[in-house]
Every structure is written in C-alpha cells, then in structure tokens.
Amino acid sequence: MARIRRRNHGFTLLEGVIAAFILAIVMAAMFAAWSTCFNESANITEMTSAANICQAELGIAGVYGSANMPIGTYSTTTSQGTWTGAYIPATGWTSGATAYFSYSGAQLASSASAGVFFSLSVTVTDSSVLQGTGTSYTLAPTSLRSVVATCTRVSTGVVDFTMATNLVSGGL
Length: 172
Prior knowledge:
By secondary structure, the protein is of the alpha+beta class. The chain has one domain (37-168). Helix content is 30%, strand content 36%. It has 1 helix and 8 strands; from the N terminus they run αββββββββ. Strands 1, 2, 3, 4, 5, 6, 7 and 8 form an 8-stranded antiparallel beta sheet that branches. A hairpin with a 3-residue loop joins β2 (80-88) and β3 (92-95). The chain starts with 12 loop residues before the first helix and ends with a strand.
C-alpha cells in the first residue's frame, strides 16, 4: 500500500492579500461607524443644550406670568399683538434683544463674549386682545399669549431647537 503523504502548506500569497483586503474593509467600516457615533453624540449634546436653554427661557416666562410679560405691537391685519426680544438678566425682558449662551448653556453678556455658541430670541404672540389706538392693545382676561423660544447656533445660523408654551391672563 502506498502511503499518502500530506504536506502542510502555509498561506499562499493570494490568500494573504485577500485576508488583508477583508481586514482593511472591516477596519475602515469600524472607524467610519465610530466617527458617526461621535458626531451624533456631539449633535445630541448640542440639541440637549439648546432644548435646556429654550425650556429655561419658557420657565422664566411662566414665572413672570401672562400679566407681566411685555406687550408688543398690534396688527390690524392679523388682529394680534406681537413682541420679539429676549430675557436679559440685567434689563429683564428687552425688546429686539437677543440673548447669547455658551455651549454648556451659561448665559453670556453679549455676542462678543468668549465662548458664544447659541443665540436665543423669544416671540410673544397675543390673540383675543382689546385693540387700542394705533398699534397699542391691552390684554383681556381671555387673551392667549403664545411664547416661542428659538435657539440658534451662532456659527451657522441653523435653528437647533424651538419650544413654545401658552399663557392666559385669566389662568387656564
């Protein structure tokens, strides 16, 4: 009987090249996935900060209450009053103002402050109001005050988050 002798062969060059190619594809996919995860994590953190800033601003509006929020300008076309501005700690509710915040949500003094990342504006739209003369108006007990806070990334001008609440002069 003839003996069959088996030889142990190592990898051929072609098998090594194919294995290296597959390994390179897997590693590239893994690094791309990590990059995507890190970018999404940063995006989620940014959106959370923007949401917290908006929520805090609406909380301030709620504490002030409907009667203490600023009155805007009446439009005969829409039969509504509109005010736009922001809450600035030094001056209170300031018409035409924009508040500025850092990435972590700390309010800053101005747009020139170091670390400015977000800007915030507030729009109050009043409906069911009592028209005065010209563009003035007063609130009725049933006036609805819609308060919208909009947080924007300063570097790109992209709105990161918008949040709203309603206040009623006579309560809910």
